[in-house]
Specification:
This protein is an all-alpha fold and 178 residues long. It is 74% helix and 0% strand.
Length: 178
């Protein structure tokens, strides 16, 4: 039995970085799928509660709050679906969810009922989110099929391959293999 066939070495080969990363990504996908299923079930329950609140006596602020809450849940569901498809969190959807959530709180509580400092902080928060929505347009699209690290890595591999071929060539133009 040689040293290369030992069970310890076989285990070490299995525990390499790519196996660990793919296993963790699989577990992460399972967690996100469970979140999607749970969020979908919660949306159905909230929708049922909203329809029940439409029955007389009609409480308009409560109905408005329910509708906005369901919109927030739909956007969160969309965010999870985008993550499952593209393995990234969408900045735009995240900012939109945050804006709708902040506005929902202001609408539900009433602008006159909220302390002025909290209104000021909410305005600052909404302004920052709006700025982020505008700035994200100029961010480079690194996740839409463009991976700068992979492109640099591929370029470096081709340079190394070209250097290797030049070292093995003979001055009169024939390859060392011929």
């Amino acid at each position: 039995m040689s040293l290369l066939d030992t069970p310890i070495l076989n285990r070490i080969r299995w525990v390499n970085r790519s196996n660990i990363v793919s296993s963790l990504e699989f577990v992460q996908d399972l967690i996100v799928i469970c979140l999607c299923i749970g969020l979908f079930g919660f949306m159905v329950l909230q929708l049922r509660d909203m329809f029940m609140s439409l029955l007389p006596p009609l409480d308009l602020p409560n109905v408005t709050a329910d509708i906005l809450f369901i919109l927030i849940l739909v956007e969160l569901f969309r965010l999870l679906i985008i993550y499952l498809r593209e393995r990234r969190v969408s900045i735009g959807v995240t900012v939109e969810v945050s804006i709708v959530s902040a506005l929902r709180e202001v609408i539900v509580n009433g602008i006159l009922e909220i302390p002025w400092l909290q209104v000021l902080m909410t305005c600052l928060f909404l302004g920052t989110l709006a700025l982020l929505l505008v700035v994200r347009v100029w961010l480079p699209p690194t996740f839409e099929g463009i991976n700068p690290e992979e492109q640099l890595s591929q370029r470096r591999r081709s340079e190394l391959q070209n250097d290797s071929q030049q070292k093995h060539s003979i001055p009169n133009g024939y390859s060392a293999e011929n």
